[in-house]
Each structure stands twice: as structure tokens, then as C-alpha cells.
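Lab meeting, item 3. Inverse folding demo.
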């Protein structure tokens, strides 16, 4: 018997950087600032492998200053680099439409001034912009997919800043080039990776980890012109029974890509297939596919958690109180309908060992570093594993 399936087609989210584009700064609205702060907070709390963007984030708070000497044979004797970044209101000039990532942009905007003593100063007043219509779209979208897309956009744009900052800090080639610049010369922004040679694999790995963390599977497909017949192609992505999803549920497939016309994903039986046509027959196409279970529900709802429960969580995570004492607090939440757990499927082979991540969750929850829902997801795991009895 075939399962029920749901497919969503997501319009490609294009992203990118602007180099040396002199635009009038627009103050962000209150909602744009709030959107940026919330998204950044989520990014910083992620516990997945990613490039450290701490230095570029520091430029939002105060100027990042890097000074280095030049050789005697260079035009200049000393270079002073000053880098700042501001959140700008989202506006896209007409001349850039179609070539920018609509999800966001990071713009490097630097000017060179010199003094009579051979000191050259490069002042960079950079901006980051996020498109509210993409981050908070009007149409309803699976929250897992929306969250992944939003975090990828933020990470992508900060990489455009961090990679260039890395060059300013440590690239001898870039530093040598600047040591021989005059105010009328153009600055080399190529290290910001406008062509996404470095960023693409970084964001692909980042996306894969995010999707997996949310219980789904991520697939990256590159279709070369040789794999097509006059541009048309059909490739097998994976098999349904190999996915890390419950076999008795349907699946939700979200896909987007570049250089694709009329892409579609089909799975009449077990095989999941991507089909479409190359827009440019001289270039390869790339497709990202997310696959989740077809139904998303908030695992729990919590209201008015007593402070002593959080104290218990903190003491339990540090070994101050026993498992039994901690579980009594959980029992209180359930019995008083403060905690509501749905769709629990208990394991037929119960476990007796509590994973370390559960105690870490308890500690972070007691410190308000993770949400109530994230904490209770761990409690649900304990019930499903048979560590906590629940009926």
C-alpha cells in the first residue's frame, strides 16, 4: 500500500554579496532589527560544526582594526584597516535585481585615504541586509524548512564578511596588494567569495547538519550537461526505505536549486526521483532536497513552569539530586497538565542509561538557554526509551 505524501516546491533563495556598492544607508525598522537579533541568537546557540564568524560579528559592536607594515619597496609604509558593519533596512536597487540573493546581502564598502607620512587607511563601512519577505513570508511554510532556510541565509551572509576579514588579517598576498594602493585604485574584494567557491560547500554542510538535527535528511545533487538528453534529466535521489523517518508516515519534500527549469520530485513507489531541464546547457545544475516526515507538530506545550522544577533540573544536571527526585518534578508537570506530551511510542526494548545530552539539556533549560519545547523533547525521549514510565 502506498503512503500519503506531501511535496512543497520552494522558490530558489538566492543570496550574495555586494562589493564596493555605494548605496545610501537606510536605518532598519524596529521589526527588521528584532528579526535580525532573533535569527542571530538562534545561529549562536546552534551546536553544529560551522566556521567561526565571531570576528565579523564583533564589527557590529565596535570597529575592527588591523594594522600591518609594508616593505621598503612598496608605495606605502603602513596600512591601517578599520572595519565596521551595520544592519541596514532592506532595499534592492533596480540595477541589481536578478543578480542578488534576495534572502540577504553583505556589502563590503571601503574607501582609501592616505597621509603625507606614507600611512594608508582603509575604512570599511559595511552593511548586512535581510529580506523580511523571505525570512517571515506571508504564506504558511513548514517551520522546520523555514528555520533551516533562515539560518542558512544568516550564515551565508556572515561568511561573506568573515572570509574577507580573514584575508585582511592573514593573507600576505592581499596585504601586499594594499601596500601598493593609492586612493584611486580599486580594492580587491574577491576574498569575500562573491562567486561562492568557498561558501557553497560550507553552507551545504551547514544545511545538512541543520536538516539532520531537525529529524530530516538532506541531499545535494549536481547534474552535469553530460547527464542530460538535450538538457532534460531524471536522476535517482534515494530510496524511501533508507530514510531515517518512520516507515508508517508520509514524507514532505522541499527542493530548490540553480540552473533548473520546471524541476519536480516524484516517488510513486520506493524510489525518489528528481527530474527537470537545464536552463543553460553549458553549465551544471545544483539541487538541494530536504526530506522530513509529512506532519509537524510542536512536541509539547508548557505553561507556567514552577521555578523549583528548573532548580531541580539544574541540581540534577550537576549530580546534586538523584534521578528519582528529578523525575518527581516531571511527574508533577504531567499530572498538573503543565506539560503535555503527545504521540509517544514506547520502545519495546527499554533502556536504563540516561544519555549525557539529556542532562546537558536540563542544565541549559534551567539557565533559559534552550526553550521549554527543546527540554521536553528530551523528556519525551526518556519516556519512549522506557527510562520514565508514562501512560
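The presenter then showed the designed sequence:
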Amino acid at each position: 500500500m502506498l503512503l500519503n505524501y506531501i511535496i512543497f516546491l520552494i522558490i530558489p533563495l538566492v543570496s550574495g554579496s555586494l562589493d564596493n556598492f555605494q548605496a545610501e544607508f537606510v536605518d532598519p525598522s524596529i521589526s527588521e532589527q528584532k528579526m535580525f537579533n532573533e535569527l542571530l541568537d538562534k545561529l549562536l546557540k546552534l551546536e553544529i560544526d560551522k566556521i567561526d564568524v565571531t570576528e565579523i560579528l564583533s564589527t557590529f559592536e565596535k570597529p575592527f582594526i588591523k594594522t600591518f607594515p609594508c616593505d621598503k619597496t612598496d608605495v606605502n609604509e603602513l596600512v591601517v584597516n578599520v572595519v565596521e558593519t551595520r544592519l541596514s533596512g532592506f532595499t534592492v536597487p533596480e540595477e541589481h535585481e536578478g543578480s542578488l540573493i534576495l534572502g540577504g546581502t553583505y556589502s563590503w564598502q571601503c574607501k582609501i585615504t592616505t597621509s603625507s607620512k606614507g600611512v594608508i587607511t582603509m575604512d570599511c563601512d559595511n552593511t548586512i541586509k535581510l529580506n523580511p519577505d523571505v525570512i517571515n513570508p506571508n504564506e504558511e511554510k513548514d517551520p522546520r524548512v523555514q528555520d533551516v532556510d533562515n539560518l542558512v541565509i544568516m550564515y551565508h551572509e556572515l561568511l561573506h564578511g568573515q572570509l574577507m576579514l580573514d584575508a585582511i588579517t592573514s593573507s600576505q598576498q592581499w596585504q601586499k596588494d594594499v601596500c601598493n594602493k593609492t586612493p584611486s585604485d580599486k580594492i580587491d574584494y574577491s576574498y569575500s567569495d562573491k562567486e561562492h567557491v568557498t561558501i557553497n560547500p560550507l553552507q551545504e554542510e551547514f544545511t545538512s547538519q541543520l536538516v539532520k538535527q531537525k529529524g530530516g535528511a538532506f541531499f545535494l545533487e549536481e547534474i552535469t550537461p553530460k547527464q542530460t538528453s538535450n538538457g532534460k534529466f531524471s536522476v535517482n535521489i534515494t530510496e524511501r526505505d533508507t530514510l531515517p523517518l518512520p516507515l508508517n508516515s508520509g514524507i514532505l519534500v522541499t527542493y530548490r536549486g540553480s540552473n533548473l527549469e520546471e524541476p519536480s520530485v516524484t516517488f510513486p513507489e520506493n524510489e525518489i526521483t528528481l527530474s527537470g531541464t537545464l536552463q543553460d546547457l553549458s553549465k551544471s545544475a545544483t539541487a538541494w532536497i530536504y526530506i522530513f516526515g509529512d506532519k509537524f507538530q510542536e512536541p509539547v506545550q508548557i505553561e507556567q513552569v514552577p521555578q523549583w522544577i528548573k532548580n531541580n533540573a539544574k541540581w540534577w544536571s550537576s549530580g546534586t539530586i538523584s534521578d528519582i527526585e528529578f523525575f518527581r518534578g516531571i511527574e508533577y508537570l504531567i499530572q498538573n497538565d503543565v506539560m503535555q506530551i503527545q504521540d509517544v511510542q514506547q520502545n519495546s526494548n527499554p533502556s536504563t542509561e540516561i544519555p549525557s545530552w539529556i542532562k546537558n539539556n536540563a542544565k541549559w533549560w534551567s539557565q533559559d538557554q534552550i526553550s521549554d519545547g527543546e527540554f521536553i523533547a528530551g523528556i519525551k525521549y526518556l519516556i519512549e526509551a522506557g527510562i520514565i514510565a508514562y501512560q
